[in-house]
Amino acid sequence: MHRSSWRAVDGRRERGHLLGDLGWEVDGIALTVTGRQRRLLLGLLMLHAPAAVPVARITTALWPGRDPAEARPAVQVQIHRLRRALPALDLPGGRIDAEPTGYALRLLALDLDVLVFRHRHHDALRAAAEGRVDRAARLLHEALDLWAGPVFGALHPRVRHWPEVTALDEARRRAVATLVDLELGLDRPAAVLPVLRRVLADHPDHDGLRERLAIVLRRCDRSEAVAAHRPYPIRAAGTVTAPPGPAPRDPHRTSRHRGPDPRRAGRPQPPAHADGDSAAARWALLRAADFAERMGGHGQALDCLAAVLATTGPDHPDRARLLVRLADQRARDSGAGTAEAREAARLFAQRGDLLGTVEAELTTARIAWCRSDRAAALDALAAARRLLSSRPRTTWPVPLVASLAGLLAVTRQPEAAVDQADAVLRNGERTPDDADRNRLLSNRGIARLDLGDPGGLHDCLTAMTEHERLAGWVPVVFAVNAMDAAAGLGDLPRYGRLLDRARATAGTRGCPQDLRYLAAAGAWWAFWSGDRADAQRRVRSWLAHDDGHFLTDQCLYLEGRLQLRRGDRGGAAQTLERLTEQSRRGSRWHARAYAPMLAAALAAGRSGTVRRVPALVEEAIDVIGASFLPPEIGVELPILMRAAGVPATALSRIASSPWRDGAEAYLRGYHHQATKLYRTIGSRADLSLCRRRVSARPPSDRA
Fold first, then answer.
1. Residues 539 and 558: beta-carbon distance below 8 Å
2. For the segment 644-667, what is each residue's pLDDT rounded down to a tens digit?
3. Per-residue pLDDT for 367 more than 60?
4. What is the number of H-type helices and E-type strands within the chain?
C-alpha cells in the first residue's frame, strides 16, 4: 500500500491528484499538462501506480480499436512528451519508468491521492474488523474527503467506462456505504450527511445511496433533515431524488415481528441493550458483515465475521449461524470452511434446529464439490434432502431451495433441480424476493442446459440482467453460469464479452475462488482465440497452483491438447494419468469425458492401438448423454470419430447445437458448411484444425 511518508528529493515533493480533477503539483505549484491524450495517459499511470501499465492497455485506453503492435510508436511518443512535461527530480529515466511489461510512475517523493484513498480505505476495513469502530469511521471520513468530484474531472465522460475508473467509483460507493453502517451503528447519523450529499452530487441516480440517505434522514433530527435536503440535487420534474413508493426499510431499527423469521436467520439484530463499547463494536461488525455479504465484499465479510466469532462463546445462541456464514465466506476465499460447517451442523442438531442443520449440510456439500470431493458432496447433499423430506415442501425457506437446486444441477441431477426451482418460480408455492429469484433462475438455467434445453441461456441472462438492474452490479457466479451456457450453445463471442464483464466485477467484488474460475476460463478463451502461447502460459500457471479445485480436470485436458499439438506425446501421456485420477474423484459430470477423449487422441496416432479408439469415443459420447456437446471438446470429437469409424448417427444422442451441427457436417463431408459453422462459433483453433483435417484426407465411406 502507498504511504504518504516517502522521502523528498532535494527538499521537493510532488503531488498527483485524480479524485475530482486531473493535475500535478510541485511544492504546491500546479503544472500544466496539455493535450487530452497526455492527460489521459497520466491519469492511467496514476490509476495503476506503482504497477506498470501494459502497452496494450495504453493503446486500448487512448486509441480504442487500434492494434497494439501498430500503436507502439505512438505510445512511445506520448510517453516521451509526458516525461518532458513532468519534472525529473534528477531521477534516472525521469518520473516515468520503462519496464519489460510497460510503463509505471515512480513513487519516490510523490503523493497520489488515489493511493492515499485506497490505503486509508484498507486501514479502515481492518480497523472495523478488529473492533475499532471509531478509528474505522475516522479513516473513512479522511479517505472520502480526498474526493472533490468525479474521477478525471472534466474528462470523466471520456473515461467513465474504463474498468479502472469503474472499480474506483465502486470503491468510493462501498466506502460510503460502510461509513453509513458504522455511523448508524454508533448512533451518529448526522456525521455522514455531508459525505452522502457530496457523493450523490456525482451519482444522483444511484438507488442504494439514495435509500441510505432516506434512512439517515429519518434517524436525524428534523432540523438536520431540513438542512440536508436544501442543497440536495433536484430532478428535472422538480422532485427530490428520493425513491418513489413506500419509505425504505431502516435495517438498523428493531423489527416489530416477535416470532422467528427464517429469512433473517443469521443476520445481525439490534442488541436489546448496549453493554459498553464491546456491544457497539459487535453490532457494527455484524452490520458491516451483513452489508458486505449483500454487496459482494467477501473479504470484508470474512474479516468481520471472524472478529465477531472470536468473541462468541461456545454456548452463545448465535454461534451456529455465525459458523455457517463464516464457512461460506471461507469457502469463497480459500476453498476451506468444512470444519466450521460441520461444527455448525453439530450445534444445530443438538438444538433440534432442522433447517439450520440443512443449511450447514448444503454448505458442506458446496465446499466439497468445489474441492472435487464428489463422494463427500453427494453424502452431504443426500443428508440435507433426507432432513427436508420430513417437512412439507411449502415450508422450505426459499434460500435453501435455491442452494439445493444449484447443488442438484452441478451433481448431475438436473430433473430434480428444475423441479425444485419451478416449485417456487412457476407453481407459486412461495414468493421469493428478488435476490433469491435470481439465484433460482441462474441455477435452473444450468440444469436446463444439462437436459439439452437451450432456454437455460435465457434463464442465466435474465438472472444477470435483473440483478444488475436492482443492485447495480453482477455477481461473478451469475456471469460464469451465463458464460458456460453461451459456450455450450456455440456462441463464443458472447462468452468473451461475458468474460470481460466478469473480470471487471471480480476486480472490485470478486473473491479468490471467482478469480480461480476466471483464470481457467481465460486459458480456454486464449486457446479459442488462437493464441496458443498465451493459453499454454495461463494453463501452466493455473496447474502450478493446483489446490484440488473442481476445474483442474478442465485445465488438464487443455494442457493435454496443447501438448499433442506440439508433438509431445510423452507429456500428454503423463497429463492423461493425472486427468484420469482427477476425473475419478471429480464432481463435474462432463469431466468424465475428458479422460477417454485424451486417451483416444493418444491412441489414434499409434499403430496397434487404433482399435481402442471406438470404445473410448463411445464412452465420451455416453458421458455427454442428452446434454449439449461440451465446448472444450470442440472439433476433436468428430475428428476422432472419423479416425475410429464411428458413424455420424452416434451424435443423435447429444442435444442439437451449433457444435453438434458442425461435427455432423464435418463427418458427412460437408466441409464448407462445417468450416462456416466453426467460424460462426468463434473458435479459431477448432476452425484451423477442421480445415487442416478436411484438406488432408477425404471423408471415409463409413463416416
1. yes
2. 888 888 998 899 999 999 889 888
3. yes
4. 32, 7
